[in-house]
Amino acid sequence: MDEKTKQSNTLMWFARIGGVIVSIFWLTSLFASAIGESIESQLSLTLEGILLSVLIVASTIGVGIAWKHPLTGGKITVISSLFLCIFAYFSAGHNKIFAVAVSGLPYFLVGVLFIQSYLAKEETP
């Protein structure tokens, strides 16, 4: 196996592992929040909550697609993570940069890794 193929495979596995970790973190947070609200009998659907859920699910779906189709899934993950960053910036109170770094940035980096691994694989002769 040549060096470019090894690099592509390494990037792919970093993207996959990172994507799984970030997705598990966010999906667990969403489910815990939904369960917490349903136990308190205060289940209220707000536009902010629905939008956050859609953006997280879209980013997670992008990670899932990227396992088989790195370029397509990577693009979906990058685009949805950018929207998640914008959402986090405008919905955060004081620490806007921290909110962006915690919410959308990890998905963005995972998406970029998927795209880069695909491009590195395509460059190999």
Summarize the structure.
The protein is mainly alpha-helical. 87% of the residues lie in helices and 0% in strands. It has one domain.
Describe it.
Helices cover 87% and strands 0% of the residues. It has 125 residues and is mainly alpha-helical. It has one domain. The longest helix has 37 residues.
Q: How would you classify the helix and strand content by structural class?
A: mainly alpha
User: Strand portion, in percent?
Assistant: under 5%
What gap, in angstroms, lies between the N and C termini? 12 Å
Count of alpha/pi helices? 4
Number of strand elements: 0
Shape: elongated
Order of helices and strands: HHHH
Largest sheet: none
Name the helicity range. Answer: over 70%
- State the low-pLDDT regions, or none: none
Number of domains: 1
Radius of gyration over all CA atoms, rounded: 16 Å
Arithmetic mean of pLDDT: 90
SSE topology:
Layout: H1 3-39, H2 47-68, H3 70-91, H4 96-123
Helix pairs in contact: 1-2, 1-4, 2-3, 2-4, 3-4
Feature tags:
single chain, about 120 residues, mainly alpha, elongated
